[in-house]
Amino acid sequence: LALASQIRTLLSQCSGTSVVAIYGSKSYPYTLAVLTAFFSRIHFLPLNPNLPTRRLNEILDICPPALLLNCTSSPCDQLNLGSSCKVLSVSTLSCDRPYASSTESFFPLHNSDHNPAYTLFTSGSTGTPKGITITYSNLLSYLSNISTLVSLSPLDRCTHFFDSSFDLAYH
Hints:
single chain; alpha/beta
């Protein structure tokens, strides 16, 4: 919880309309950043470092973030982030810091189900990235319906094979 607490503190500095880019692929830091964004109800933009730099920069031009959480061990100097975007390497956060207090919670920072949860980009038929924004109400409705349809219980386990730039990675 110490790392999640530190990430949440950084996310709390963003306004309700700000986009936070999360740069990384499936890893502990990436998953922690995504879950913290979800629980904090922050609008995030997943950026897969395996995509070509040109495509990532096109996405960033369309959807500029206020903050980029780098969940890789590599610098992201090749990304066109603009002068107002803060960059934080998740690997610089410390597990040694204790979880702040029993009063610290992970309740939403921005409490509206109609706020954007995340934006994914398709390649589009023209080759130009097109953003698709999923709201928290869209996500909650989908999860409620699919868990009923599939009859999931707390004892069930699901696989997670999807790439971070694919919608099912967040369901």
